Amino acid sequence: MPSALAVFSCRPNSHPFQERHVYLDEPVKIGRSVARCRPAQNNATFDCKVLSRNHALVWFDHNTGKFYLQDTKSSNGTFINSQRLSRGSEESPPCEVLSGDIIQFGVDVTENTRKVTHGCIVSTIKLFLPDGMEARRRSDVAPDPLPLAIDKVSANTPSMYSQELFQLSQYLQEALHREQMLEQKLATLQRLLASTQEASESSWQALIDEDRLLSRLEVMGNQLQAYSKNQTEDGIRKELVALTEDKHNYETTAKESLRRVLQEKIEVVRKLSEVERSLSNTEDECTHLREMNERTQEELQELANKYNGALAEGKHEELSQKGLNEKKELQMRIEEMEDKEQALQARIEALQADNDFTNERLTALQVRLEQLQEKSIKENNSLAVRQLKEAVDSSINKLSNFDEVIDAHLQNNQTVVDNSLPSPDRLKENQIDAKECDMSDTLSPSKEKSSDDTSDGQMDDHELNDPQSRVSLLKVTPAEGGEVMRFIGVSDKDSGFSLMDQGGSVHFSTSLFLGTGDEGQWMPGRLRGVQRSVRLPSLDVTSKMDRNLEAGDTEQVMPHLHQELQEAQELANTGKQKCLELQALLEEERRTNRQQNEESAKQIRFLQTQLAKLQSDMEALREQRENTITSTREELYTAQEEIVMLQQAMESATVERERDIATLQADLGIVTRDLDKWRQTAAKYEVEISSLQASFQLQNQHQERANQLQGELEKLQAECCGLQSECKSLRAEKETLTQKLQRLQEELD
């Protein structure tokens, strides 16, 4: 038949043991290991000193199907979930145990040093029924499963926490009791010490008095013996000689002792002088070492001050040099920005002039177109209009070629990045190129004037003499059946474009002012003149136009001229846009310059603040140096004062030594006088001896009387003791009688 199983598992706060699997076929004893029963995994014997040999019993009841635990008069108790089963050394009734309960056998035993020496057994018990199922747990049953008797015991038994408090209170009471006992022992020891001191003092005083009395009795006995003898004159003389010898010996011993004391005193004085001499030498050496130390400290302080000053000066110079360099760099940057601003301003002005010139040229072309239309209508001559159309087409083509050249130069100049500012020589060359272009532009109107003088007066003087007009008709020659006009030149000063008649050929010149900045953008101030001369072959315009001109071509030329005018207006608009872009760039440059100026101003202010800080640090270092100088001077003054005090101490020591010598001499005189006094006292002692003999006789009489009184006292004490014993016996009889009387009264009652 299978049996129930109980598994005991060790908990962390327990005395260590292996897990136990105990089969509960019959009640199993739980206890301490002995020689007959050793711990094993299948029993409940533990190697723990706080357990009793027969500590508890555990068994399984087949009738009820429950597990029970009983404390069998253990000394330290058995606990289930911190509830003790019984009082001390009493057997408890059986108590039901459930699976998962915490069982504690015994308590921790502590020594007087309050160190845990032996731990108790604390285990978690798991219970299995004979069918292999685990028994009920505490959480699966009602919260109050214990029987009434156990409930009473549990109610009267404190919990683990209250038990620990009780133990602590017991420990405290024991400690207080020990402290009181120690205090009582200390008080008794103090009383005993005081009594022993008093007894020792009294005994010592009695011993001294006894020695004195014995010495005096001996002297008096000798005197009495000497006086009782019937001596002759020779004997008396011998006694006197002996007394004189004793006196002489006493004097010699006294003199020897005095001489020895005087010699010791002289030796002490000599040692004192040597000590004073060594003291003076050590003081001199100490002063010398102190002076050397002060000197070295001053030198070190000076070196430190010099080093700090050199560091501060070097730092100050470095910062000042750095500030100057930064200031120079900022000034150079400001100058560069100003140059850039001027160049941008010049570029803007040039573009503005270019824009104005293009507008004027467009107006002149429009006026010329209107005049040509009027002439074509009046003279019905389309040859001149066709010729003008070809000339305008060629000029527009050249303008388009000019734009292509500008774009090409812009691309070339954007690929080449110049990091440095333009040199003055290059600026001068660009200015010379611009002047040459202006001269060529001024020459073209003069040629136009000379050619207009030979023409038929088809154009008015206001258009030909206008200095701002850059479009001119240089030569108009009559052809067959009408006038033929040759479009000789168109000049553009600001864009560098010009057309001039040079012996039957047309000269095309361009002057470009381009620049690239450090970032590959347009940078004003970097002007580069590029001239191109294009020689066009001479055209026999008159012959070709005379052969190919027809009367109905004027109507076809007009739309082309309008288209060309629109293209010229578009060119003017692009010029305006470029001008606006350059103005925006200039504003950006100004903004960046302003920011850089603000940053430079901030850096200058920062450098100024650093300079002020350095100046304040220099002033602080100067003040510190002055303070150190004043402190060293004060230390020097104190050292001088100490030297003066030491000198005064030496003088006082010499004076004291002289005083000691004088006092020793005075003591020597006193000793000699004392010796004389002792001689006088010796004579007095002789007189006292006689008086002491008489007193000794009287004392003997008193002693005899005291002996008699002592005998009588002893008799009286014996009689008193007898009376006390009789009194005790009478009291005992009285007590017996009173007891008998009480018994009789009780019997009577």
Automatic annotation (TrEMBL):
<dbReference type="GO" id="GO:0001675">
    <property type="term" value="P:acrosome assembly"/>
</dbReference>
<comment type="similarity">
    <text>Belongs to the SLMAP family.</text>
</comment>
<dbReference type="Pfam" id="PF00498">
    <property type="entry name" value="FHA"/>
</dbReference>
<feature type="coiled-coil region">
    <location>
        <begin position="675"/>
        <end position="747"/>
    </location>
</feature>
<dbReference type="GO" id="GO:0005789">
    <property type="term" value="C:endoplasmic reticulum membrane"/>
</dbReference>
<dbReference type="GO" id="GO:0002080">
    <property type="term" value="C:acrosomal membrane"/>
</dbReference>
<feature type="coiled-coil region">
    <location>
        <begin position="172"/>
        <end position="199"/>
    </location>
</feature>
<keyword id="KW-0175">Coiled coil</keyword>
<dbReference type="GO" id="GO:0005813">
    <property type="term" value="C:centrosome"/>
</dbReference>
<keyword id="KW-0963">Cytoplasm</keyword>
<keyword id="KW-0206">Cytoskeleton</keyword>
<keyword id="KW-1003">Cell membrane</keyword>
<dbReference type="InterPro" id="IPR008984">
    <property type="entry name" value="SMAD_FHA_dom_sf"/>
</dbReference>
<dbReference type="GO" id="GO:0031966">
    <property type="term" value="C:mitochondrial membrane"/>
</dbReference>
<keyword id="KW-0496">Mitochondrion</keyword>
<dbReference type="GO" id="GO:0007338">
    <property type="term" value="P:single fertilization"/>
</dbReference>
<dbReference type="GO" id="GO:0042383">
    <property type="term" value="C:sarcolemma"/>
</dbReference>
<dbReference type="InterPro" id="IPR051176">
    <property type="entry name" value="Cent_Immune-Sig_Mod"/>
</dbReference>
<dbReference type="InterPro" id="IPR000253">
    <property type="entry name" value="FHA_dom"/>
</dbReference>
<protein>
    <recommendedName>
        <fullName>Sarcolemmal membrane-associated protein</fullName>
    </recommendedName>
</protein>
<keyword id="KW-1133">Transmembrane helix</keyword>
<keyword id="KW-0812">Transmembrane</keyword>
<feature type="domain" description="FHA">
    <location>
        <begin position="28"/>
        <end position="85"/>
    </location>
</feature>
<comment type="function">
    <text>Associates with the striatin-interacting phosphatase and kinase (STRIPAK) core complex, forming the extended (SIKE1:SLMAP)STRIPAK complex. The (SIKE1:SLMAP)STRIPAK complex dephosphorylates STK3 leading to the inhibition of Hippo signaling and the control of cell growth. May play a role during myoblast fusion.</text>
</comment>
<keyword id="KW-0597">Phosphoprotein</keyword>
<feature type="coiled-coil region">
    <location>
        <begin position="265"/>
        <end position="382"/>
    </location>
</feature>
<comment type="subunit">
    <text>Homodimer. Interacts with myosin. Interacts with SIKE1 and both associate with the STRIPAK core complex composed of PP2A catalytic and scaffolding subunits, the striatins (PP2A regulatory subunits), the striatin-associated proteins MOB4, STRIP1 and STRIP2, PDCD10 and members of the STE20 kinases, such as STK24 and STK26. Interacts (via FHA domain) with STK3 (when phosphorylated); the interaction associates STK3 with the STRIPAK complex.</text>
</comment>
<keyword id="KW-0256">Endoplasmic reticulum</keyword>
<feature type="coiled-coil region">
    <location>
        <begin position="579"/>
        <end position="631"/>
    </location>
</feature>
<keyword id="KW-0472">Membrane</keyword>
<feature type="region of interest" description="Disordered">
    <location>
        <begin position="431"/>
        <end position="471"/>
    </location>
</feature>
